[in-house]
Amino acid sequence: MLTDSHCHLNYEGLIEDQPGVIERARAAGVGTMLNISTREHEWDAIIATASTDPDIWASIGIHPHEADAHPDVDTAKLVAKAAHPKVIGIGETGLDYYYDHSDRGRQRASFRAHIAAARETGLPLIVHTRDAEEDTAAILAAEMGKGVYTGVIHCFTASGAFADTALDLGLYISISGIVTFKNAKDLQETAARLPEDRLLIETDSPFLAPVPHRGKPCEPAFVADTARFLADLRGTSIETLAEMTTRNFHALFTKACSERSRGVAR
């Protein structure tokens, strides 16, 4: 079974037919989905969606685009909300200097607060980074020096050097449908060489639909297309890649396994 390690089931493009989206994902072989939050006001809805299904989980966090609008979301608030049994990750968080929708200093402060929450809860950090490799790497490394935490660089599009830095810090790397794009040669080279025990796949739906679905709202079902492409790129079968990435997801997001074993499905 496949795992979509990063999707937005409550966003426009999916929310209008959420039951159908989930049904199509199941038909495509997607067994597990992680429903990601980016703003505080949506946390309860994200968790509510996860609570409808034993194999849908939730994260809580503030996207760097939203950092200016959430000055009061600190480590304590994140830690408190993360106590919910369906919350298995902190984020997405990070730095985005491409759009600069929020002040860079505020982005960095929010990022550090999320890392502290990940460290305190033991939940993985879900990192967004765009045009901010140097600062992202510096903060990740400095914070790791304060105490170990786990995490994943989601929707990876950065350089091979940044991938190596993330791996050296013990982080995972998640590949989205961008890897199927014709102009993604550098990303394809990096994705082909990532260690098999640190690789995840995702859709980031409803964004970034892979080939052959370009131009359509992306759905978790489309993670199968990314998996097929990535399997071919790495010279393996989709069955092997599905097993490997699902195993890696549960190795990283350990709370999902423990809560499932306790029967916390809803």
Description:
With 266 residues, this protein is of the alpha/beta class. It has ten helices and eight strands. The chain has helices at residues 18-27, 43-50, 75-81, 104-121, 133-144, 160-168, 185-193, 223-234, 238-252, 254-261, and strands spanning 2-7, 30-35, 56-60, 87-96, 125-130, 151-153, 172-175, 199-201. The protein has an eight-stranded parallel sheet. Strand 6, helix 6 (160-168) and strand 7 (172-175) form a beta-alpha-beta unit. Helix 3 (75-81) packs across helix 4 and helix 8 packs across helix 9 (238-252). The two termini are 21 Å apart. The relative contact order is 0.15.
Structure at a glance:
This protein is an alpha/beta fold.
What is the fold's blueprint, element by element?
Elements: E1 2-7, H1 18-27, E2 30-35, H2 43-50, E3 56-60, H3 75-81, E4 87-96, H4 104-121, E5 125-130, H5 133-144, E6 151-153, H6 160-168, E7 172-175, H7 185-193, E8 199-201, H8 223-234, H9 238-252, H10 254-261
Parallel strand pairs: 1-2, 2-3, 3-4, 4-5, 5-6, 6-7, 7-8
Helix pairs in contact: 3-4, 4-5, 8-9, 9-10
